[in-house]
Write the structure tokens for this entry.
Amino acid sequence: MARLKLFVPLAIFVALAALLWKGLSLDPTAMPSALKDKAFPQFSLPILKDEQQLKNQSDLKGQVTLVNVWATWCVVCRVEHPYLLELAEQGVRIVGVNYKDQPDAARQWLKDLKDPYAFSVMDRDGRLGLDLGVFGAPESYLVDQQGFIRHKHVGVVDDKVWARDFLPIIEQLNTK
Amino acid sequence: MIAELGHIALIVALGLSFLLAAIPMIGSYSNNLLWMRSSRSLATGVFVFIALAYACLTISFMESDFSVAYVAATSNSMLPWYYKASAVWGGHEGSFLLWVLMLTGWTFTVACLSRSLPMAMVARVLSVLGFLTIGFLLFMLLTSNPFDRLLPDTPSEGRDLNPLLQDPAFVFHPPILYMGYVGLSVNFAFAIAALLSGRLDSAWARWSRPWATAAWAFLTLGIALGSWWAYYELGWGGWWFWDPVENASFMPWLVSTALVHSLAVTEKRGVFKSWTILLAIFAFSLSLLGTFLVRSGVITSVHAFATDPERGVFILGFLALVVGGSLTIYALKAPTMRAVATFGWMSREMFLLLNNMLLIVIMLTVLLGTLYPLIADAMGLGRISVGPPFFNAFFVPLVLVLSVLLGFGSVSQWKKTKGQKLASFLWVPAAAAVLMGLAVALMYGDGFHWQGWLCAAIGFWVIAVSLRDWWSKASKKRGSTFSQLFNMNASFYAMMLAHIGLGMTVVGGGLSSIYSVQSDVRLVPGDKVSVGAYEFNFSGTEGVRGPNYIADRANVTVLKDGKQIAELGPEKRRYFSGGNMMTEAAVDSSFGRDLYMAMGEHLGEGAWAVRVYVKPFIMWIWIGCLLMGFGGFVAVADKRYRRLSAVQSEMPATSTTA
């Protein structure tokens, strides 16, 4: 009987190996198919600039919007930030989701690095992030005029990613 | 030609490692002494040919031979020579060659330093290491050969080493870390050899101990160096980010810490045998798992190498073979008998068991956090993120509990300790720790933070207990206490250094997180900004030119109470190849605090976004890690390990230090 117990580590490892095997065929940066072409999840969250003011999913509608998940603890967001400013200058509407963050630190960040966002909602407990299936910040979603998610990108958005993955979809959406 | 020579050397080494894995192992079963003896020569041969291959790759780098694909991808003719030499490990293929060089280097060291071990044991240990070498060499030759040529379209210039890596720390961090990672393979081999021979006694534990301690010390230093590098190079002011790759190095560290302690118990008291074996297998398995995570692309990370699913499949297959195989051997061969030695609730054994349990729980939470995105994805729960909040919520309390228990464990005795005795010994350090904690909490920050008090008190508790132990051990000896302080055996100093180091790291990590003051400001020349008691004066930027970049350097003087105490020159660099912009933070370090400054964006008209930190006690983190690593090396140097012989093996040990 005691011998059987010694097989426990092996059994645990087999389960882990199976998981890793599965992991190989999954692309961590791929968009969960469940969300693509679906409406942006419902939310009603205060914005950073004024915690009394609530925004919800219908505020995304009207024009093509880039929803960007960011946080001050996210080291790569700092790298992405200048490009977002550039995009905002080009007239792209960017909405921030400030994910599991300290509001004071986040406001300070926007003050110092400038604010590319039309507004940033505060997702302090990560509920919206959960609905979106956020894998880690930064993450960006392209939302169309009707509030449907058209594309998701995990990681930093830079000029290459923007030209390759986002621009074609935006052009298509704008000609519709 | 050089590259082809290197390629051939790899193939010869592969052939030799097949022989190493087979001949001595068969010899050990058929009792053929000649076959067993071949293990040492074969191990030497494998090492020599891998070293030759490594030298060939280094020469290709020094000569900037861009017809070698790997050189073209990671080097550039403008790089200074020391970065050319270290660019060898700047990418996947070369760093893997370094890994294999370390593995064969450890194998070679075991072959040289095992004169006192029984021949069958040596043969099996070296055979297991040879088997591991086969796997890594096959992986390299089949999926990631560093000597592949780019012919006939040879580029005239290389793509350059990633600017993030062009830093002195890059010269040291990967080799030291790999020494630790790979060193765990020696204990793995010892564990397998012990299982195969059924020889699991205190002699076995004594042979394994210095190897475990050496690997652990290298791992400690490697991780600390990486963390220090991230702190000053990345420019974000943090020192640990719970990045999957950091976790991949931290998990083997946690398990090898448990292993080092559990080996002590197995050696001294002959208990926890199966557990120690399991830890040795786990430690190396986790270092293989780390390799898999970094090089297969299953998890996204800032460290991840360019990935390729084929590589992932190969490493996973190898992982399954090595870990699955060793756990099967474990299940079939591990002793199931209850140990004869018994121990009470308040004994050193019990505290070390608790230490092991806590370390394993910490490791499991880190593992869960690292793999959770993968688990959730595989089970179809969607993609869920586990950020630093998850890790900190579990890690911080567990480490604090571990440190509190350390105080009790390190001064308790084997078998049984009287509670009263412990209390009378420990009340002084406890009182000192509480007071020191209060002093820190009152001196720093705006208002009293109980977390600051707690972290400081627990860190100082570990330090105070160690010092008290040192003093009381010395005063019990004959002669003047003061001279006896410097007359302890090496293993006692090792333990004390490592424990004080841990205490300092706890103080540094806790207090620097709680009491850091930070300010993000826009500065024009002539501006000043006050952070804490310090005033930073920005007098403008100047252009500077490095070997392969140009930079804007800010001139900043720091004043405290009107007196100048430091000059800082943070840089914003643009590298010629690729045009990468890099932030080079400036840090003024001292024992009590770091002044840290990083440049953000240029805001036009001479104005810059600048981030300034004052971080108290942050140096303590790395001083603590240095002490831990140094303690490890002191333990390895202990004479006890060098005068042992096979005859001694059954002798019960009497020393009280662990």
